[in-house]
Every structure is written in structure tokens, then in C-alpha cells.
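Researcher: Sequence recovery benchmark, item below. Answer with residues only.
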């Protein structure tokens, strides 16, 4: 295993450098993230009056349903961008586009899901230092066979 440069803090604590790690904090704006969560919460109440679980969508929605909804909401965003008011409004339309995009991506990821550990498979595939994860995955396979 390769040795990596690290950081020693004034307290004496040591951490590897974060230069090549996925930067979730930097990739997502907290204000937009909060607004999206507000949108999702607002739409938890179903037409039958029952409040659905926040992760209900993860049970599975066909990709063609996501695509049709994504397109409708994109048209709302486009109209708002062109100065045409829509029933949804710009922020809700953008949040709906995000929901359908995340949902569609979720379905794709489920189709590719690893039997060992789906998160490790995602990290292995998209992380710039994936060679370290090969060792972890090999170790996990070995442990599961014993």
C-alpha cells in the first residue's frame, strides 16, 4: 500500500491529506440543499391524506416515469427562465428537476449495484484513488468466504 502525505494539527492529531478525496461539502451548496429538502418535505403528503416516508421514492419508480416528469418540470424551468410564469414557480420546478434526476440516477445505480457493498462499488468506480479500494474489496470478499 502506498504511503500518503498527511497533516499534523497543532493538537497533535494526524489525518491523511484530503486533496484527492471526494469533497461533498464543496460540491453541494447548503442553501440549495436545504431548499430541496423543504420541497421534498412539502410533497410528502399524498393525495389520500397519508404522509409518506421521506425515502419512499427509493422503493423504486420506473425510469420512464422519472423521464416524463423530468421533462414536464424542465419545461416549467424553461418557461420561468423566459419570463413565463408557471404554476410551480422557478424554485419548485428546479427542485422537481433535481428529484427526477436523482431518482433516475438512483434507478441506474440500483441496476449496477454490487452484491458485496454498493457504496464501495461507487467509491471504487468514481474515486480518484481507487487502487486503495481494490485492497479493501479483496479483503471484504476474503472475509465473507470464511
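Model:
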Amino acid at each position: 500500500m502506498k504511503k500518503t502525505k498527511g497533516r499534523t494539527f497543532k493538537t497533535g492529531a494526524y489525518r491523511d491529506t484530503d486533496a484527492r478525496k471526494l469533497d461533498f461539502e464543496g460540491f453541494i451548496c447548503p442553501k440549495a440543499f436545504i431548499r430541496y429538502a423543504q420541497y421534498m418535505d412539502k410533497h410528502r403528503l399524498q393525495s389520500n391524506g397519508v404522509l409518506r416516508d421521506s425515502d419512499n421514492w427509493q422503493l423504486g419508480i420506473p425510469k420512464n416515469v422519472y423521464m416524463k416528469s423530468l421533462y414536464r418540470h424542465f419545461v416549467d424551468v424553461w418557461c420561468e427562465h423566459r419570463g413565463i410564469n408557471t404554476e410551480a414557480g422557478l424554485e419548485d420546478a428546479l427542485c422537481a428537476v433535481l428529484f427526477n434526476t436523482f431518482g433516475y440516477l438512483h434507478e441506474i445505480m440500483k441496476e449496477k449495484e454490487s452484491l458485496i457493498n454498493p457504496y464501495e462499488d461507487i467509491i471504487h468506480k468514481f474515486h480518484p484513488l481507487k487502487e486503495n479500494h481494490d485492497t479493501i474489496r479483496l479483503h471484504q470478499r476474503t472475509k465473507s468466504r470464511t
